[in-house]
Amino acid sequence: METSTLSAAHSFGDLERYRGELTAYCYRMLGSPFDAEDAVQDAFVRAWRSRDKFEGRSAMRSWLYRIATNVCLDVLKGKERRERPMDMGPSCEPIEANLHVPAEVTWLEPIPLSLIAPDRDPADVAVANESIRLAFVAALQQLPAKQRAVLILREVLDWQATEVAELLDTSVQSVNSALQRARATLAKGNADGATRAQPLSAADRAMLERYVAAFEAYDLSALTSLIREDARQSMPPYDMWLSGRDDILKWWFGPGIGCEGSRVIPTISANGMPTFGQYKPSPNGGFDPWALQVLDISGGRIGEFTFFLDTAKLFPLFGLPLHLDA
Fold first, then answer.
1. Which CATH code for domain 1-79?
2. Do the Cβ atoms of 243 and 232 come closer than 8 Å?
3. How does strand 241-243 pair with strand 106-107?
């Protein structure tokens, strides 16, 4: 009995080794890095408080996933699912009158890869282990909570149906049925495992350098050459989103002309995607935060822009300063 207690105490002293992968799991479930971090911390507290019940028959990792899943299911009860502007309706004309901030919507938030892969190369982790891109995580939010857990555990983490059934205290038949329904829902929304992040090629990196230079110069011709014709843009917390390069550039050189003269600096990858901090010229001198730009690259050009405007919350998370000197 004494040896078992000492062994359990030793095991629980090693909880931190699971933090990254549990944060990734909870992020997929909850759609927010802040909620995910809170959920993992809650799971660790629950695990420690019930450590005397851990008898080692199941692996520590499986036991922690069970606790983390229960925490996430508790968090999701009665909560609005997290959305992207594209989930709210059709694209809009690029005019200022279409800017609205709906009070009832909770937006999907990006996560820095440093939270889910602190000790490994983020590019390798994104390719090998993480279905973490914004579009895929957004699609997961459309699923009921238990279907979401089943799909992540089975399709993303490669758990066996028997393992998932044990974790959720249900039958294998129930797990397989939930997975089938979840797959059907994702198929309707055109989201599947193909949305996993891919490593940037040398050509992609060179293209991104040209993009930064073109954006800072606000060079219409150069920007046109770097953006796909079918590109999309969104700017949470606004529900407006734009479809097509022409409308994006009409916005940038129309209502969004205040972005001219911006500084754009690379930062930690969000969701396995190229990410930049954008700073607009400040009336008081220097540059103030404007947007966390998360880009999706397709076919050697930029296929989607997500400009997250909640800089007070997101810039510190991504290690970005809240002011740049001139």
1. 1.10.1740.10
2. yes
3. unpaired
> In sequence order, which ranges of the chain are alpha helices (DSSP H)?
2-12, 19-30, 33-49, 60-76, 113-116, 122-128, 134-140, 145-151, 161-168, 172-188, 202-217, 220-226, 245-252, 311-317
Which has the closest alpha carbon to 290: 323, 254, 253, 252? 323
In the chain, the amino acid numbered 323 is: H
The set of residues, in sequence order, having a beta carbon less than 8 Å from that of 282 and lying 6+ positions away, is: 288, 323
291 has which bridge partners?
A: 278
Q: What is the pTM of this model?
A: 0.91
Q: Is the dihedral of CA 68, 70, 73, 77 positive or negative?
A: negative
Distance of CA 95 to the CA centre of its chain: 28
Beta bridge partners of 280: 288
Within the chain, all domains assigned CATH 1.10.1740.10 are found at 1-79
Q: Is the pLDDT of residue 6 over 70?
A: no
Cite the residue boundaries of each domain of the chain with CATH code 3.10.450.50. 202-317
275, 110 Cβ separation under 8 angstroms? yes
Q: pLDDT tens across 281-295, in order?
A: 999 999 999 999 999
Taking the domain 202-317, which CATH number applies? 3.10.450.50
